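About this split. The held-out portion is used to measure sequence recovery: a designer receives only the structure tokens and must propose an amino acid at every position. Recovery is the fraction of positions where the proposal matches the reference. Here is one held-out target exactly as it appears in the evaluation file.
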């Protein structure tokens, strides 16, 4: 089992989703008392009041106590260009908290170096090499292309909330965020015609 170094809303228990989401980004976002904001909801809701540490940047951890290697600059540049372009194309914006966006883009760049493809860095995979041969979790993933929902919080509304309006009832995004409307319904959702096939999207048992 491999833990990917990026913020996410992965398909596990609600507690796991909240604690895993934005885990790396949260390392750079601190409140007035200096305590780390630990989960995605707190990070999003607290963003306006949070302070980014003015100390020297800390290395992004791959796992507790282990520093993550840096991606190649070429891969990083490519992923930044892609993320900016897709955000504009889909009518979304990158997360207003820079640390969130930076963590996800860095994770994508790491996968470009490792796998040659921008595999979503916000999931656990039994076999990343095998998963990289599929389309479903390539950024922008099927979930984003069908429902315009980004569980990594990379492509969101200007207020930092992920769009959940098109998600089916019972989806984790609806459970965590409620119904978050789409301010640009005329953009994005290139695969919305596959909505009826949504039951084929991977579950937690597929990627854990």
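Reference sequence for scoring:
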């Amino acid at each position: 089992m491999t833990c990917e170094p990026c913020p996410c809303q992965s398909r596990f228990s609600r507690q796991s989703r909240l604690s895993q989401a934005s885990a790396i980004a949260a390392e750079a976002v601190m409140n007035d008392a200096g305590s780390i904001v630990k989960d995605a909801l707190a990070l999003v809701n607290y963003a306006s009041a949070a302070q980014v540490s003015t100390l020297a940047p800390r290395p992004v951890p791959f796992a507790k106590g282990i520093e993550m290697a840096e991606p190649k600059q070429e891969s990083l540049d490519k992923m930044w260009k892609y993320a900016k372009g897709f955000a504009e194309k889909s009518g979304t914006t990158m997360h207003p908290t820079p640390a969130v966006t930076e963590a996800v883009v860095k994770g994508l760049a790491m996968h470009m170096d490792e796998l040659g493809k921008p595999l979503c860095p916000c999931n656990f995979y039994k076999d990343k090499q095998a998963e990289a041969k599929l389309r479903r979790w390539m950024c922008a993933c099927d979930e984003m292309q069908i429902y315009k929902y980004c569980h990594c919080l990379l492509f969101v509304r200007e207020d930092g909330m992920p769009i959940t309006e098109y998600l089916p009832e019972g989806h984790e995004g609806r459970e965590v965020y409620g119904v978050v409307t789409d301010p640009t319904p005329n953009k994005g959702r290139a695969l919305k015609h596959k909505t009826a096939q949504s039951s084929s999207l991977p579950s937690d048992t597929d990627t854990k």
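Annotator remark: Residues 108 and 118 are 5 Å apart (CA to CA).
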